[in-house]
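the two lines:
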Amino acid sequence: MSDKVRIALDAMGGDHGPAVAVAGAELALARHPGSEFLFFGDSALIAPLLDARPKLKSASRLVHTDIAVRMADKPSQALRYGRWKSSMWLAIDAVKKGDADMVVSGGNTGALMAMSKFNLKTLSGIERPAIAALWPTLRGESIVLDVGASIGADAEHLIDLAVMGAATARILFGLQRPTVGLLNIGVEEAKGLEQVREAGRLLREENFPDLDYLGFVEGDDIGRGKVDVVVTEGFAGNIALKAAEGTARQIGEYLKGAMTRSLSARIGYLFARSAFRQLRERMDPRRANGGVFLGLNGIVIKSHGGTDAEGFAAAIELGYGVVQDELLAKIRAALERPGKPRRHTQSQALGQAVGSQVLGSQIVGGAAS
Amino acid sequence: MSDKVRIALDAMGGDHGPAVAVAGAELALARHPGSEFLFFGDSALIAPLLDARPKLKSASRLVHTDIAVRMADKPSQALRYGRWKSSMWLAIDAVKKGDADMVVSGGNTGALMAMSKFNLKTLSGIERPAIAALWPTLRGESIVLDVGASIGADAEHLIDLAVMGAATARILFGLQRPTVGLLNIGVEEAKGLEQVREAGRLLREENFPDLDYLGFVEGDDIGRGKVDVVVTEGFAGNIALKAAEGTARQIGEYLKGAMTRSLSARIGYLFARSAFRQLRERMDPRRANGGVFLGLNGIVIKSHGGTDAEGFAAAIELGYGVVQDELLAKIRAALERPGKPRRHTQSQALGQAVGSQVLGSQIVGGAAS
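prediction for all of em together
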C-alpha cells in the first residue's frame, strides 16, 4: 500500500469537536502528503475550518450530518438515535463500504465501540472486540489490551487478546515474536484469578509461533517494559491506564511546583530547560494518544476526547501504522492458524457472568473517554 | 492511650530480614520514645543487631523462633508449616494475647493475611478483611482499599470497605465525614460492573452519617485526591496501586536521565538541588509504605517486602496512628450502627463466583509483596 491512506473522520467527536479534528488532520497531512480525508459532521462548522486550510481542503471531502453522538450517552441510546445518520456512524460506514482505510473519532468510546461492532462486525473467531493502548515504558513502548472495551474475560478471550495484541506489536514495533505477559497480582503461578491462570496454562502449552509468552506480570512491570504486550480484561486494564496517566500528571504538578518555589530552583530550571523540555515530551500523554479497536472487520481508532490537534494527529498516525501494514490480514491469519487452541475451556466465573454483555452498558468509558 | 505503644515485629519478614526490622524499630523509637518492641525471629541474627543499639535493646524483648515464612510460599503452605511456631504467627499471636497493640511484618502478604485471619478472626459482620493503602495525592493523601486481600467483591463487601475505609480516614486524617468514591470505569451512573452500581445505589440511599458518598471515580481521580477514600475490589486495586508505583519510578528514571545528559542540565540540577530533593521526598514510595489490614480483631500492618529501615519505620508510624486512635473500636461502632444496610442484596456475579475463596490461593500479593 502506498502513502495514499484514506481516513474517515468523525469531526463531531471529542470535547472540542471539528476544531481539533480539522487541525489534527492538517498536521497529519503535512506528515503524510498522500493522505485523503473524509470529514463527517456539521458542514456549517467544518467548511469554514477547511476554507482556512486550502491544502487540507483539496485533500478532503466533507459529508454533512445533522446528528452527532453525545459524549454522555449510553451506547444503546447512541445506537437508537445515531444509527444510519450520525457523523460517527457514517464515518464507520465509510470503512465498511471501502471508501476509507480507517476511521478516527474522539467521541464517546462506548458508542464508537457499539456502532463499530454493529456495522463492521467482529472478525471470524472473535466474540468481543478490545481496545489496545500504546503505553510508554522505560524500554520504549508496549501494547496494553483490553483497556475498556468490555468487562471480564474468560481464558479464551484472554488468548484472543494475546494473539491480537501480538499481531499488533509485530506490525507497530517491527518484532518477529513479541513477548506477552498476563496482568495479574503476584507473580507466582498459583496466584490470581482462575481464568488468568487457565489462560497462562494454555499459552504455555500451545507455544504459539508468533508470540513468546513470558508468564504473569504485575502493574509495575508495565512501565518497566517487561513485555511487549500486556494482556488483561477491560476493567483492570482501564483502571491501570488511568491510574498511570493520573500519576504522570500528578508528578508533573509536583515538578512544576518544585521548580518555581525558590530563586535558585528557577535559575536551575533555566539551565536545565532543554532537559525539562525533553522530559515533558516523554511524559506527554498526547504522544501515546489513540486506542486501536481490535477484533473488528475494519480499523477504528479512538482518540482521547480531551486532546488537542497534536494528539489527534498522533491518533491518525497510529492508524497509519496499522493500515499500511495490513493489521487486519495479519490478525486474521494469526486467528486462523492451526496452532490456535480450540474453544475447549469452560467459561470461567467472571467471563461467564459478564462475558455476553458486550453491548449496552457493559461497553464502557474505555481508553480515553 | 499514651505514647506507650507495644509493637510486635516479625523480624524475619521482607527481603532483608532482621537488619531492616531492627533498624526501622530504632528509627521509630527515636520518634516515639515510649514504644516497646517485641521481636520474633532467629535470635542469632537479631541479638547482635540489638546489642549494637543499647537504647533499642532496653525497650525490646526478643523471642527466638526457628521457623520463618518464606516469601514465595502459598498461604496454605505457610499455614501448614508456620502455624503456632513461625515468627510471623507468634508476632500476630502477641496481638491476640494482648501482649502487643499491633503487629508489623514485611513478609509474604498472602501468608500474613491468612494467619491474621485464622488467628485474630474477622470483626463481627465482616466476612473478608481488606488491605488499605495510603495513596499520596495532589491534595494530600487518600486511602485506597482493597489493594489485594481478596479478588472480587459483591455490593455488600464494597459497602463494608467503604465503612472501614471511612473509619480509617476519620482517624488518620482527622476528618468528620470523609468523602468516599467507588472506583469504576466511566463516571456515568450506568457504567461499570453490576455490583459496583448496586453498591453505589445503596451508598446513596442509605446516606451514612459518617461518610459522604460522592459517586464513581476513575483511575486518574485517585492521584487528584478527588475523594478521601477510594473503594474497589482487590484485583483492580492492586493493579492500580502497582501501575501508579511503576509510573512514578519510570518518571524518576526519565528525570535522572534528563538531568545528566548535558552540561547545562547538570548545572541546572545543582541550582535546583533542594527542589529536586523535595520532589524526591514527595515521590518517595517509602513515605506511603505500609498497608493496614482492616476487618480483623487486631491491628496488622504489612510493610513493603523490599523497603529499607526508613520505610519500615513509616509502616510502624502508620500503625501508631491507628492504634492510638483506637481504630478497631471505631470500625466496630460504624459496623454496628443501625444505618448500616442489611445483607439483603443477592451476591452479584463476580462476588458470588470468587467471594468465598478468601483463603488459599485467592489471597494474593497485595499492597506490597
